[in-house]
Amino acid sequence: MDIGEITRIRDQFQGGQWPQFLERLDITGLRGWRGQTVQFKFPVVAVVGENGAGKSTVLKVAAAAYEKTEESGYYPSDFFLDTHWDTLEGIELGYQIRLGDQTQGFKIRKPTKRWSFPEKRYRRRVFWFDVARTLPLDATAGYARVARLAAGEISTEALSDEFRGHLSYILGRDYENARFAAPDVNANRSVGLLQRAFGEISQFHQGAGEDTSLDLMRALQEVPNHSLVIIDEVEASLHPKAQRRLINFLIKQSRLRRLQIIVSTHSPYVLEELPAEARVLLLPTGEGPSVLYGASPEFALTKLDEIVHPEAFVYVEDRSAEVWVREIVARHQDGQTIMSRIKISSVGPANVVAMMGKLAVEGKLPQPGVGILDGDQQEAQGCVRLPGGDAPERVVFLGLRDQNWAGLHERFGVGAGDLHTYLEDALLSPDFHRWPSLVGDRILKSSTSVWETMSTEWCRVCLTDADRDIVVNAIQGALPA
Questions:
Q1: Is the distance from CB of 186 to CB of 142 less than 8 angstroms?
Q2: Residue 301: its pLDDT value, please?
Q3: Which long-range contacts link 6-13 to residues 24+ away (Cβ below 8 Å)?
Q4: Which residues contact 177 (CB under 8 A, 6 or more apart)?
Q5: What value does the mean pLDDT take over residues 331-357?
Q6: Secondary structure class of 107 (helix, strand, coil)
Q7: Which of 16-20, 176-180, 447-451 has the lowest mean pLDDT?
Q8: Would you tell me which CATH number, out of the four given (3.40.50.1240, 3.60.15.10, 3.40.50.300, 3.30.70.20), belongs to the domain 3-125+225-291?
Q9: Is pTM, for the whole model, over 0.85?
């Protein structure tokens, strides 16, 4: 993640510098949606979820927010069709958009056969890129004939130097030229060509990532300022480094041109380049999708192994809490059995833990579960809190300090005098999340190793039976009898 660029775009966005912005969708009557709301809290947002969770529905509803013109835009009927097998009715799509310093709300409905629109609709350039862009050129309508019969070019159009540079950056290759040629057999079926040191190659023979990225760069260089850009499966055909670079490129373009960009993805590499407020997880439940904001990339893309079948899930905020919960459970006489029956998942901020706990206790998730919040968080339905009434790092470090650091020098294999100095020095940092890494830097161990050792020692000398049982009883309560 480019922290500097994220900070710049966040500051500008919070300062109201996007004069046009789609803030919110409310979806009822489409593909299992029952009035759920999706909010867009950042200029570049990734919608993530398993197949069938509703990602494409969100993107298509967003694309239909603005009035369709000759230049761009879409009607809902462009995406949601009545067919021999599907009759769509009872649909209500709610929108909230920002125009300058004004916020407007309106609805589009389809009570029976016809769509009804508000008297006044708002204009904005909308650009939609679906997964069809990933088709090989020779599999796209009209291009097989071009491949067989073209004998020359009528005209050619070069990609701008700026966007050729972006293409080179994203794919990690130096392209000397990039252009689109109109073939003599069909001027409307232009063919992209890339030139590298060994020569020029057409889209008929380019790699899939080159093919899709070249077309995307051509389209994006023509996108006007303030537009809405929507890209389905943004990572398609790209290797991990290219995925990261593409997202960083989109973030910068959004900031420079005040674009709003909404993408769908299944890729952890995409999510890791975005801040928490830019990640929207759609979680299928029996009452339609639940919408979670800020979920960790790991949780958002967790897929259960076909062999491992946990009986219940334990939702925590981060890796630190995950390690600490495991050590707390291990201190119970039935700890080994309990751990074999559960999966502890670090899901992101406290609001995500609270939402997962609520959904679990209401029986809206496929598996039983319980949320375990950090001690400094407020109580929430379906959740318990970790011991100490404070953040895990503060509870563990300060608790061990009160015990004169207990037996940590033996566990780390470091002299007590030196180790105690390193530990006390770490406490001087106001950022308690860094305390394990600051100690690790001094004793040549990873922050993860330091935290695991300290959590184990804290549980040995500081954990009370009462605090242990609060956590363990909550987990046992989630397990099937």
A1: yes
A2: 65
A3: 6/251, 6/275, 8/255, 9/42, 9/43, 9/44, 9/251, 9/254, 9/255, 10/42, 10/275, 12/255, 13/42, 13/43
A4: 158, 164, 193, 194, 195, 200
A5: 90
A6: strand
A7: 176-180
A8: 3.40.50.300
A9: no
Domain ranges of the chain: 3-125+225-291, 136-220, 304-387+465-478, 392-461
Q: What is the pLDDT of residues 374-428, one digit of tens each?
A: 999 999 999 999 999 999 999 999 999 999 999 999 989 889 999 999 999 999 9
Q: Which residues pair with 213 in a beta bridge?
A: none
Cβ neighbours of residue 459 closer than 8 Å, sequence gap 6 or more = 327, 328, 330, 331, 468
Phi then psi dihedrals of residue 185, to 5 deg: -85, -20
As a CATH number, domain 304-387+465-478 is 3.40.50
Strand partners, 375: none
How far, in Å, CA of 140 to CA of 146, rounded?
11
Q: What's the one-letter identity of residue 307?
A: I
